[in-house]
């Protein structure tokens, strides 16, 4: 059985590599806390992780708009997919 084509399928290896780097950054923050590092240094690294995740998220939105939405529009689902994507973008942009 073939995996479905997704908006990120063409760059899946790059996406996975970026996510692995982010995972390493998170482990680094965990070590910083374990080592009792200065609060501002920990917060700076958390900010860098959030920026990296935002970049991944925006890349996924771009791929979704260029691939999934185009396919959905040709299948008559443009309105539904637009609503779904805008809700996802809204969740992506929300921060505590």
UniProtKB/TrEMBL annotation:
Gene3D superfamilies on file: Metal-sensitive repressor, helix protomer
Pfam families, per the entry: Trns_repr_metal
GO molecular-function term, one example from the UniProt record: DNA binding
Keyword Metal-binding recorded: no
Listed GO biological process terms: negative regulation of DNA-templated transcription
Spans through the membrane: none
Keywords: Copper
InterPro entries per record: Metal_Tscrpt_repr (IPR003735), Metal_Tscrpt_repr_sf (IPR038390)
Nucleotide-binding keyword on record: no
Similarity section: Belongs to the CsoR family.
Name recorded for this polypeptide: Uncharacterized protein
Protein species of origin: Pilimelia terevasa
């Amino acid at each position: 059985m073939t995996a479905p084509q997704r908006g990120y399928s063409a760059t899946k290896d790059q996406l996975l590599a970026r996510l692995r780097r982010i995972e390493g950054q998170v482990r680094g923050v965990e070590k910083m806390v374990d080592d009792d590092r200065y609060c501002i240094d920990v917060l700076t690294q958390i900010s860098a992780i959030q920026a990296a995740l935002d970049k991944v998220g925006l890349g996924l939105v771009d791929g979704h708009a260029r691939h999934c939405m185009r396919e959905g529009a040709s299948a008559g689902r443009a309105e539904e997919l637009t609503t779904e994507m805008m809700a996802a973008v809204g969740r992506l942009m929300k921060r505590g």
